[in-house]
Amino acid sequence: MLNPIVTGAALVAEAPAQGGNLTLDLLREHAPAALPGWSLPLITALISVVIVITVISLLAMVSVWLERKVSGHIQCRYGPMYAGGWHGWAQSIADGVKLLMKEDMIPLGSDKALFMLAPALVLGAIFGAFVAMPLAPDFYFADIHLGAFFILGMSSLTTIGVVMAGWASNSKWSLYGSMREAAQVVAYEIPLGLSLMVPLMVAGTFNLLDASAAQSDYWGMGWFVFKNPFVIPAGILFFVAALAETKRAPFDLPEAESELVAGFLTEYSGIRWSFFFMEEYAAMYLMSLMAAVFFLGGFESPVLHVARQAEWHPILCNLIAATTLIAKSMFGVLVMMWVRWTLPRVRIDQVMTMGYKYLTPLALLCALGAALWEAGKAWIFA
Amino acid sequence: MATEHKPSITFHPEPRQLPGGEREYMMDVRTGDLEVNMGPQHPATHGVMKILIRTDGEMVTAAQPHLGFLHRCAEKIGENVEWLQYLPYTDRYDYLSSMNNNLGYSMAVEKLLGVEIPRRAEMIRTICAELNRIASALVAFGTYGLDLGAFTPFLYAFREREWLLQIFEKACGARLTYSYLRIGGLFNDVPPGWLEEVAHFCDVFEEKWQEYYDLLMVNHIFVKRTADIGVITKEQALDFGLTGPMLRGSGVDFDLRRDLPYMLYGEAHDAGAWKVVVGRGEKGTLGDCWDRIYVRVAEMMQSVGIVRWCLANIEEGPVLGDIAKTLKVPEGEAYVGIENPRGELGHYAVSDGGKVAVRCRVRGPSFCNLAILEDIMPGTLLGDAVAIIGSTDVVIGETDR
Amino acid sequence: MDFQGIHDHLRAIEAPGLVRADEPRLPNPEDKKDKGRSGDAYVVVEAAQLASFLRVCRDDERLAFEILADLTAADPAKDAEEFWVIVQLLSVQHRHRLAIKALVPKASARIPSATGVYRAAQWHERECAEMFGIEFVGHPDPRNILLPDDWEGYPLRKDYVFPTEYRGISCQ
Amino acid sequence: MSDQATMREPISAREWIKNVWDGFYTTLAGMKITGRYLLQKPITIQYPDERMPIPDRYRGIHYLEQEKCINCLACARACPIDCIEMDAIRHGKELEWVSFSVDYQKCMFCELCVYPCPKDCIHMGTEFAFVTDDRSELKHDLLSYKGMSREARIRMKEAEAKKAAKDAAKAAKGADAKEGDDA
Question: Residues 25..84 of D with a Cβ closer than 8 Å to B: which?
Fold first, then answer.
């Protein structure tokens, strides 16, 4: 449905002629004249990539630590307490160092090239998806008109990496894991896209910046969930489908440690394994950010509204907006963790049943309802 | 299960001539069966057991348990150490219910000796055996959640189990391998304040039990994962000699504690302190995984009832019967089967009148319960296979002994 | 039913292969050497008829032994002529037990398999076969169950000599 | 390929709705329980800093009241795995200790060695952490001193002195008697 090639083609066609964002503007104003004009977008892109990778990696590391603390406290224990002093805040760093130090093992009989390529592909795809994700109203890397479409396309590209990893590992458990991943992601792309249709209809745009801006009325509380009653069920459906997309429990069948040992990760170790791990957390953030933008008002909050009214410095406004968005996505991630540590795992055929027979019809119903509601609204107010 | 090799792609030797002059090589692409070793180091096999499964996609078409990775010659050791010295070894076959193992072995030797056990010793034995049943059922419940991917109930169960282990530790000084019940009674009386702590545990446990039930047992995903899965019919269960919760889960109303009463269970049952829990097919078919795990979970509360009855009726007195220091067991043979948390634990002891047993047979319930896997696993999904193995609640120390 | 009742009933229906009943008894005060016998009572059955005896036990309405609780063997002494094969039956319906003993000569340790009667016997017989070297005739899957496939000797026999090494691993 | 592909019966609309509702409701019920614990204080303790109280009856590493021990071998005989070895040379009533070792590679902490002791001198202590990277160190000597204790040596010397004095007295007496005879 969301073929990345089609997405890419659409993107090129729709891409704005200039990259117009805060970084580029600043560069245009302050860059030394010696730099040729054509290099400025390139430098912008470079800066953006560095920022994306840093921010996402940091978020992933923090949320790994957070997950361990949340799971610990849910289970009446503390979680990491030693590394770094206060509540083991440096645990993720210590783990990262450990993973870097570990021997890089490639199993005998595996397809070496694919085995090494898979983690890179997975991580690259998920970072690529973040390109379309604005961090603040004036801080984004690409203002893509089909942003939502692009993100869904890129994030489903990770599936290819996972399937590749499972196939290349030359292990039966890995093969099971990757096949499950393929089946699962195909099944859940549909409800994911369909449930996203509902806020898209309310917003009337695929562009994340525009969608966010559309929720700024009513003191920054004009969120789509308050605008259309069908957005709330659609939000729940989106959340469930996003859980499945990101391979989180109760849909962690590709890993399924009690069934498939570790699924597609069985043969991976060290830093390659941690790439997959980072991808999982990055994907969690991506989906939470999507949910935050399309259901929970994006950057908008009363604080930002007040800041805008008072005409504070634009950088401060952008910081407030970014904090709001990250806080909202953090909330989504927390709920994902909470669900993970509560529920048992679903069986593979039930995953399929749930995707095709429950979520898809429900998402269709929501989309229909939302469409009628919007049409009715337009008809009444016209 | 034959292990013939079938290549997944076979080429036909003769190419087919196409009209345009091209030649087409025909091939059969076959989605081959996979033969997978589930174990000995697989998270779902609860120890070192191997199940050789053949799968067609996600479907398990054949399964064959392979045992013996934890074989420790318990029966042979029994023929080489003195009667009392064998007691610590009984701790180690079903290491989750050591008190019950001690009890079974002691009862077998006591049957040969023909000694009377003081009533206080019987009371404390009953309390210990039942508390151990709760501790064991908590592991069964917790690890079953783990098998199905729910991590949290496992730690909640272990929280209560930890308290139980501390209670045992106070009585006998060990947390897992108790060696507390001995031939003729107990090694020593319980410390002061111990019975009060047990009573307190019973009160707290009731609340926590409700929590387990709400968190996992009635969870929709859990119910859908376990209901109608791995159905063992009544006839199958009897034919395979299943015992304990496996048998009761299939709807057979039989509990050795009530039906062939030993110790004080019969008395407690007559006093209305507990009743036998039988699977009713509440969430699906009778005899499915949910019924089996339900019987285990519900039995915890019945055990609390027995413990409460014992606490109400306990009296002062000696805890060790008239037992010689070096046991010489009269000639004869005895089989004693008791209701272990996993089923009938049988001890068959043969004596020729000497200090050492001639034959010391242990009938481990897990060993017998496991045999049914070959029958019920084919035709299920891989995830169900895990659910089924978990629902048999095997302890590999006991299957291999 | 108690043991006496079961035995009388077995006599009455002429169960195949029933030899005698062996019950615990007190020491004979006149004979100093007789120390009596304690423990369980059991019925002794001809080895060749064991399977058909079990079938009768299972199918007879008043006995109704649905469960084969245990099937094992014992080697009473190094110089004994025979192994014992001991079967423990359990009736859910009537709540009684029965212990059955069959004597199998060591020289030709063969006994019909009870798998056709109780499938529970399958694994027990495999264990007996590898531990004692008793052949269960008609067993559908006569492989080792606990020991490795290439294990030599029968460990629970009294004349078993412990190996010093197994596949290059010292067992001392 | 598979001839075992199963087809589930289609479910009724009522059941469909019930499934949706049950899934939603029981998830929320579970999340309520876990959420409550999320906000409570954990019950675990931080092990190396805090420790659980160890009950008096704990069966840990043995300790020996060496003064009381009479080298009767009762504990060694009671041990199911023969992990206790002891050796002492007897000088009259006093013992000169050579070794009293427990092999913790074998020991299974069953406490069977404690009960038969006639002098109540071997006990199981509360110490349990006994970690080493050398197996030979696991054969642990319980003796606090080898040879003889100071008191035992003094007692033995006293006894010897007494005996010598006795002998001397006896000899003197004998001599006296002889002298008396002579006289």
Answer: 25-27, 29-30, 33-34, 43, 52, 55-59, 78-80
